[in-house]
Every structure is written in C-alpha cells, then in structure tokens.
Write a structure and sequence with these properties.
Length: about 190
C-alpha cells in the first residue's frame, strides 16, 4: 500500500511539474514589443500566480478521473450490448439450433429421408435475416442476366447481360453487397 501511495504522489508530482514546465514555457515565449524603430526587446508576460497553477492541476486531475469513468462506462455498455445482441440472436434461431442435431442424426440413421422434411428447420434463420434487413441475391438455380455488381462468375469470360444460373445465392443489406451470388453458364449435373 505504501508503494501505491508513493507512486501516486510521484505521479501527481510529475503532473504538477509538467504543468509548471508547460506554463513556464508558454509564459517565457517572447512577444514582439510595439513597432518602434529603437526597441525590439521582447517583454515576457508575468508568471501566473501559484493559485492558478494549483487550480489548473486540480482541473486536470478531475478531467483525468472523469475520462477514466467514461472509459469504464463505455466498456460496460459494450459488454452489455454484446450480451443483448447474442441473447436476441440466440432466441431467434433457438428452434434451428435445438432441432438441427436431431435432424442430423435422423439423416444419418435414414439416408433416404426426404430433404423437404428438414426445410422447415431453416425458417428461424430466414426470419433472422429478414429482421436484419438482409435479402438474398437471386434464388438457387434461377436464370438471370449476369451483373458483375451482384454476381461472382465461375469463368472469367462471362459478359454483362449474359444469361447465367445462380448456383449459390448471395446476400445484400440495402445497397451493400455482403456476398455476391455465385453464377455459372450451366446448372449443376442432374439439375433441371
């Protein structure tokens, strides 16, 4: 405890010394005298009274403490916002998360299980994206005109406006493209 108080005292001493040094430097700057031809001497302003130095030091210490408090508040808010976001997101996809492991086991046990029985599991994920204002770019296997702003081609020679198929959808949020849709001139093998 004695080391902490001596470090604190030394810190205050350094702060006050730095303030005095800066004020002394500012106070000692020479300012040009009135423009008369005979005198070009600089007149140093009078040094501030010791009371002003003490008041400024107190103000600096108070501002430093306030800054530390604001930083702590911001960190607490960040932590709380992260927790709130995670909780809200989990609530929206909880159904998907709780059913997915069981669905995975069913598919392993019954490989011939129709995939259409599992599609309903993804409704919460779709609702989450909709709530965030995220829209899909195209739909799987849809034929569209190639747009390099929205699509990522699988070949370099695909030209703007050329007919392509969406192999994998992309996503956008307003005007911002989160990921472009992956497109190809042909559908995957076996697709109609």
């Amino acid at each position: 405890m004695g080391d902490d108080s001596s470090l604190l005292g030394f810190g205050y001493f350094l702060t006050l010394g730095s303030i005095a040094l800066v004020l002394g430097f500012v106070g000692s700057r020479k300012q040009p005298a009135q423009h008369n031809a005979q005198s070009r001497e600089a007149i140093a302003p009078p040094a501030p009274p010791a009371a002003q130095v003490g008041e400024r030091a107190s103000e600096i210490v108070a501002l430093q403490q306030q800054c530390l408090q604001l930083r702590e508040q911001l960190q607490q808010q960040k932590t709380q916002l992260t927790a709130d976001f995670q909780e809200a997101t989990f609530e929206q996809i909880q159904t998907l998360l709780t059913n997915y492991p069981s669905a995975q086991k069913m598919v392993q046990a019954k490989p011939d299980l129709p995939a259409k029985n599992l599609i309903a599991l993804f409704t919460p994920l779709e609702n989450l994206l909709q709530g965030w204002g995220i829209e899909s770019i195209g739909s799987a296997w849809e034929q569209v005109a190639f747009d390099p702003q929205l699509h990522q081609p699988d070949e370099d020679d695909i030209t703007v406006g050329e007919g392509v198929y969406v192999r994998f959808v992309g996503y956008r949020q307003g005007d911002r493209i989160l990921c472009p849709a992956k497109v190809s001139r042909t559908l995957p093998g076996g697709a109609r």
